[in-house]
Design goal:
Length: 484
């Protein structure tokens, strides 16, 4: 049998496996009723163990496995900002998302747009939050598609057919099983990815360097500038890590995953144990350093891991690892599509077009929207240059961070009412868009992450305006607390 055929069989075996798991997932924690709450949030009945895999599935994606070592390959130790922000984000998760879950449970919120609509009594603000969320998610899904494309191209396969089939599978099992599909497939995805990363981080340094010590010694001698973060970059490193950490749980898919929890305490437990994933993140960063030796001189650093795998293991095992990376693309794409679809249905269509839409029609519209959103992300990945879509994802992170005053700040004070929140959000968005313009879409301005500059402007505007308006009383501060 030709090598290409065996590779195809290996790749498609993983796609079939994850598709079957996704379809069978409808039986997991099955509900006797059909509703948008059940389809997209599993009725908010998942425990801490399931949430751990679900959040891991949508935070640590296939593109993480390519982009982080690619950044290490290209920029050296600066890549560890990803590890830093994943450490910072979990205390923020502990402080904020349990409170958001409590209020969502008490008021039957499905999306973060529902929360913004209620707390500010503003359908327009809810729709704006939804629009920003969808804008940020589309290039994120597109990056998962690029991850598939990089892996498949290195395996010598025409990527378009495999990508189309895998995304069709994602659409099908997501529409059929909803968030339960993402939860169950996350188990498979994480098992295989952990196994792959541990295997690689043990084998690669021993095979090529005879140990980690020799690898670091080689790196220090050959690429001394990549061994440390230059002092001139400390401020960029710190602000990028902090801003990225704050932004992560403003993304709709992260909030959607947390909303499936059966109680706020399950989220707190995950804030304690989720940092275990950072061990894997450290490992994949180290693989980027090893790739400098194994496949030097690459113009596209995102190809470092796929090319290293192919050179080290040949076509069959590289196809096996490629199939695992594709799993890491399919699972987060499902969660991101569900979160985006719900935002469109609940906070754009219902808020602005048809307030009386039935729950059954909402569920149907979200299912249709899943297919549309994934297809749109696929189209963007085809017609847009990879560098541009990466840039769009980075810009999306900056823009989603500007939701800070309308999502996180009201969790702790009712002094922020609709007008101060609107002024702050407008000021933050204007600031970042202006800075992106003057920096030619660079995310760093004067060594500071632009997203944090926007948030600083928002906080100042809130303090300058909040006390001129009555506090918001649409949600009681007691609603943010746990029920005992």
């Amino acid at each position: 049998m030709p090598v290409e055929n065996i590779q195809i069989i290996i790749i498609f075996s993983f796609i079939v496996l994850i598709a079957l798991a996704g379809f069978l997932a409808k039986r997991f924690e099955a509900s006797k009723t059909d509703s948008l709450m059940e389809w997209s949030l599993a009725g908010k009945r998942f425990g801490a163990f399931i949430i751990w895999f679900l959040l891991g599935g949508d935070i640590y994606t296939a593109y993480t496995l390519l982009a982080v070592p690619g950044l290490a390959y290209n920029s050296g130790a600066f890549a560890f900002f990803a590890v830093s922000y994943c450490i910072i984000e979990y205390p923020l998760l502990f402080l904020t998302i349990p409170r958001l879950w409590n209020v969502s449970k008490k008021h039957n919120f499905i999306t973060v747009g529902d929360y913004s609509t209620k707390v500010f009594d503003s359908k327009f603000l809810g729709a704006l939050v939804a629009g920003i969320g969808i804008f940020a998610e589309l290039p994120y899904i597109g990056l998962q598609i690029f991850g598939m494309r990089y892996v498949l191209s290195i395996c010598g396969l025409a990527p378009d057919i495999a990508i189309a089939v895998s995304l069709a599978a994602v659409i099908a099992f997501t529409v059929f099983s909803g968030i339960r599909a993402a939860a169950i497939t996350s188990f498979f995805k994480d098992f295989f990815i952990w196994a792959m990363v541990i295997t690689l981080v043990i084998f690669i340094p021993i095979h090529y360097f005879n140990g980690f010590g020799n690898m670091f010694e080689w790196l220090n001698k050959t690429y001394p500038a990549k061994s440390t973060v230059p002092s001139a970059d400390f401020l960029s490193f710190a602000t990028l890590a902090l801003g990225s950490a704050v932004a992560l749980f403003l993304y709709p898919h992260a909030i959607n995953g947390a909303y499936t929890s059966k109680n706020a305490d399950s989220i707190r437990k995950n804030a304690i144990f989720m940092p275990l994933y950072n061990i894997m993140l450290i490992f994949v960063t180290l693989l980027g350093f090893a790739a400098l030796y194994i496949v030097p001189g690459l113009k596209n650093p995102n190809l470092a891991i796929p090319l290293m795998l192919y050179k080290t293991f040949g076509p069959y095992l590289s196809a096996l690892f490629g199939g695992i990376i594709i799993l890491g693309s399919m699972v987060p794409a499902s969660i991101m599509a569900i979160a985006s679809a719900n935002l469109f249905t609940k906070n754009i269509y219902q808020n602005l077009i048809d307030p009386g839409i039935s729950d059954k029609s909402q569920e149907l519209m979200s299912k249709v929207s899943v297919a549309f959103i994934i297809a749109l992300a696929l189209l963007l990945s085809v017609i847009i240059n990879p560098i541009l879509i990466i840039k769009l994802q980075l810009i999306g992170g900056i823009i989603i961070l500007q939701l800070f005053p309308v999502v996180f700040m009201p969790l702790f004070t009712n002094r922020i009412s609709k007008i101060p929140a609107s002024i702050a959000l407008a000021g933050g968005l204007f600031t970042i868009l202006y800075l992106l313009y003057v920096t030619h879409l660079n995310i760093i301005y004067d060594k500071i992450y632009i997203g944090l500059i926007g948030v600083a402007v928002e906080i100042i505007l809130v303090f300058l305006t909040a006390f001129f308006f009555k506090p918001s009383n649409n949600i009681s501060m007691d609603d943010y607390l746990d029920e005992f």
